[in-house]
Specification:
Elements (H helix, E strand, L loop, with lengths): L14 H5 L14 H17 L4 E9 L8 H23 L4 H14 L19 E7 L5 E7 L5 H11 L4 E3 H10 L13 H14 L28 E6 L5 E7 L20 E3 L5 E6 L1 H7 L1 H11 L4 H16 L3 E6 L5 E5 L3 E8 L5 E5 L4
Parallel strand pairs: 3-4
Antiparallel strand pairs: 1-5, 1-11, 2-3, 2-6, 5-6, 7-8, 8-9, 9-10, 11-12
Helix pairs in contact: 3-4, 4-5, 9-10
This protein binds aspartic acid (ASP).
Aspartic acid binds next to strand 8.
Length: 374
Amino acid sequence: MQSGGTPELAVDDTVPKLRGCFWMGEHRSVRITPLLLVLLATTLSPVVDAAPKWAIVIHGGAGVIERKELTAEQEAAYRAALTRAIGAGSDVLGKGGTALDAVEATIVLMEDDPLFNAGRGAVFTAEGRNELDASIMDGRTLSAGAVAGVTRTRHPISLARRVMEKSPHVMLVGAGADTYSREQGLEQVAPGWFYTEHRWESLEKTLKEKGLPIPAKPAGITSDPAKDVVHDEGKRGTVGVVALDANGNLAAGTSTGGMTAKRWGRVGDSPIIGAGTYAANSSCAVSGTGTGEYFIRLTVAREICALVEYQHMSLQAAADEVIHERLTALGGDGGIIAITPDGTMAWSFNSVGMYRARAADGQAVQVAIYKDER
Ligand code: ASP
């Protein structure tokens, strides 16, 4: 197995075929004899039981995350945060909520958590601002919404969902997206809401290395520097969620502050449908994290789902092909989480570590950070 790859939590390859039983489709004329029914009941029911009704995978960013770099306090904080987030998504799905609702609720929580580079805790631009990107996609309808460079919305993922559900567009950027957010009545915050001491220190360090001036701190800082246990996983990070709900629908969402000291309105892959986020019930749902420029060039998320759909590759094989072969060959770094309509879950990354967790109905929750964790 390749580094960062894990075996699928899988479930049998035949399971998706059971979602639409053959006598409901083109073979409507088949006569169902009692014997056939008995045969069907005995051969199919164990397989049906094996497929989870719902499943969810989350990431909190990939990067340089090594055991020796994280203090015990930092490691415990990240594991607790991942556990909280996967618990929130599982709750929604366990109560019969939609994959979209699970994706949004989980990301909302992670956007408020200063440990992650999304919402509060986002990295800073070279001008000392937080410009936030997010996207969401509905695997059932292929509807999608995205925002880039928003500065005042507490929950960019909710804004992306509004764009998807309430506007005729897929993507809004900058001041226009901020205006739309206000018009939609989404919660607005002072720029200082997103501030964390650690991300600011990381900005100062990067700007000094680049010989760029240090900007003034944003107005309205509320966070307590003493409580800052953020680990700098290499000037970036992102949060993402993919989910399958009990109705068999997939959704994916991603939210990020982008890269430390970004300039010129730089936008990465996270709000780009097909690059950082993708969901289609016909194949899979994916959310990525890593140096966005490479994910955009390779359309990483869509590429994985295309391999599943057209080459009939298993989810893990498709994810490893794109991350460990194509992304690595291009010099890119990062990882993805993914899920298929039969509840197969996968993650794959070529970075040193990735904050991640997964859960499915009837299965134990798994939380992991380092490469060697299964
Ligand atoms: N993909 C994000 C970006 O390029 C950053 C990350 O995931 O670490 O903006």
